[in-house]
User: Fold this.
Amino acid sequence: AQSVTQLDSHVSVSEGTPVLLRCNYSSSYSPSLFWYVQHPNKGLQLLLKYTSAATLVKGINGFEAEFKKSETSFHLTKPSAHMSDAAEYFCVVSATNTGFQKLVFGTGTRLLVSP
Amino acid sequence: DTEVTQTPKHLVMGMTNKKSLKCEQHMGHRAMYWYKQKAKKPPELMFVYSYEKLSINESVPSRFSPECPNSSLLNLHLHALQPEDSALYLCASSQLDRANNEKLFFGSGTQLSVL
Assistant:
């Protein structure tokens, strides 16, 4: 079965400092992995996705993630945090290969950004 | 148009009421989804429709009844709900893609309170 584990429930950073949100995956085949962000009282927005074309994936708003098969990790990073980055971040794996997506969400990491 | 529109944004209902949640997209997506998100929890898949046919029902109680009347619309009919059904209900859509890496477009959700 496909699953993801987000290692931190909360991460606190200061504005302008780097962000690291950690995610490990478990998959019986080459996974499709995503990072989604959810701002308060909002729906979910895709930050980036891993498609196996490149291990370093660049997303929106300066975020990127690196797929490391040897470590079964897909950590999300950003060089410099902005106040607007404060939100809930979900690491997600797709659990089907039948065309439609059956997304399995991690438990989420709340990113707090202080001035 | 890259939006998934959900109505209503908020809904309060009693346990004996019948109500419906609506979702609409005009991106030509042939997969549509209902997710349930309890407070401070990740979204959980409820139903998936592909080509207007129910493809996945994640053992959801029968008091939730989905309907996909055409390729642009997805409804969730609610009847005799319980207070524990209070949650954010998210609709999403995606292309059908065997490579399994098409992103989901999420609506902003309906915040449901059952009294």
About this structure: The longest strand of chain A covers residues 87-94. The radius of gyration of chain A is 14 Å. The interface with chain B takes residues 32, 34, 41-46, 49-51, 90, 94, 96-103, 105-108 of chain A (CB under 8 Å).
